[in-house]
């Protein structure tokens, strides 16, 4: 298949406009047209336009929808990528309603403090059908800062090999590094040197572990990732209520740490938007301890006012009267770990920016773009949905497999075939100090065994098992029998 064309930008423009008409009708809303024009201006002639079409063509040829595989992104704010179907189904426009039947759409003039999945149910005022709620309110940050443009896809092994072969045939990739089942496609434009493409393996270990767990869950349950809902279905209400319970995070790699538990004492998870912002707090530097935590504790601000990503600061400064270019100039240092100058601080004061915001701004060492947290939150949400609403046993099996814990040993313990003490210790240390597991991994092993008792109707054994404290180091002397 030949993806390369001399008029690649024209082909890209036609493809994305055709898809926009399918979604919103013709003429499509001004906000949609403006976003397409803004992004086309950035990518035209840079090589990124070619990358988008090549990637879309590759996924079409291997027969994979990116909504059904784990995806991470450096540019989740790309609406062009969304219209081409290669960004995991993340619509970056601000939250809005869209009717799939008559193509009617409603964009509120102000930006909702939420994501589309959090909007209430509404019927289409034109045809009466239920409206689709979507949009994650992600700015096209790559347009402002010339950031690297790319996505990381976690593909099944056979599909990964097929995708690599397709990219090789295009001849547009400078280097390819094959690593496990991840496909990382990056494009970077350097002034004066043109475009460089490369395919490399993902380096984020927790993301790879989570992606492997999700892929395994999809295989075990037969429920594709793309079928897991975010909005207010009865099942998702159950998941949302579980967000406030720290115990529900056991078996979800990126959620099992003391820092998140500390944040959740002040920061409440009421909706998916809060879930996204939680990742911004936890992976930004200087955002919480001695900063956001004190502001919330003292009642200085509400939870929604706490800046946790670059877009929060960018939007706030524009509302304070700064134009887009100046707001970007002030926001950019937060991504690079730099501090604002005295002149910039004085300008903030002169625009009436509150003292708390300026103080928080100065304490924050580094923030990142919202799209990164959305992809992280989406993967964690899917794991939680599988755990609560699909199949608990499959969830534990996938976790223990990807966490390198002996699943058969867990089931033998839950069957009462072995003594708990030494075997629980073996799960933690894996018979080698170099394989020591953290406390939360041991809690997960405890929980899987407790559920094993429940599945088998061994209620008395389950009650006895709850008395075991996995935070305690197990020795032979502390041996307990089920």
Explain this structure to me?
The protein is an alpha+beta fold and 482 residues long. Among the domains are: 154 residues, no CATH class; 65 residues, no CATH class. 50% of the residues lie in helices and 7% in strands. The protein is built from 21 helices and 8 strands. The strands form 2 sheets. A 5-stranded mixed sheet has the order 1-5-7-8-6. Helix 7 runs antiparallel to helix 17, helix 11 runs antiparallel to helix 15 and helix 18 crosses helix 20. The protein is globular. The termini are far apart.
Strand content: 5-15%
Report strand order across the widest sheet: 1-5-7-8-6
What about the largest sheet? 5 strands, mixed
The ordered H/E elements are: HHHEHEEEHEHEEEHHHHHHHHHHHHHHH
Find the count of extended strands (DSSP E, 2+ residues): 8
Mean pLDDT: 77
Secondary structure: helix percent: 40-55%
Rg on CA atoms, Å: 24 Å
Category from helices, strands and their pairing? alpha+beta
- Give the N-to-C terminal Cα separation: 61 Å
In short:
With 482 residues, this protein is an alpha+beta fold.
What are the key terms here?
7% strand, 21 helices, 3-stranded antiparallel sheet, 8 strands, 5-stranded mixed sheet, 482 residues, alpha+beta
Helix and strand topology:
Blueprint: H1 8-24, H2 30-43, H3 48-62, E1 71-73, H4 79-84, E2 96-98, E3 105-107, E4 132-134, H5 141-145, E5 149-154, H6 157-170, E6 175-176, E7 182-190, E8 194-200, H7 205-221, H8 234-242, H9 258-263, H10 272-283, H11 288-297, H12 310-319, H13 324-336, H14 342-350, H15 355-363, H16 370-390, H17 392-402, H18 407-414, H19 420-429, H20 439-455, H21 459-465
Parallel strand pairs: 6-8
Antiparallel strand pairs: 1-5, 2-3, 2-4, 5-7, 7-8
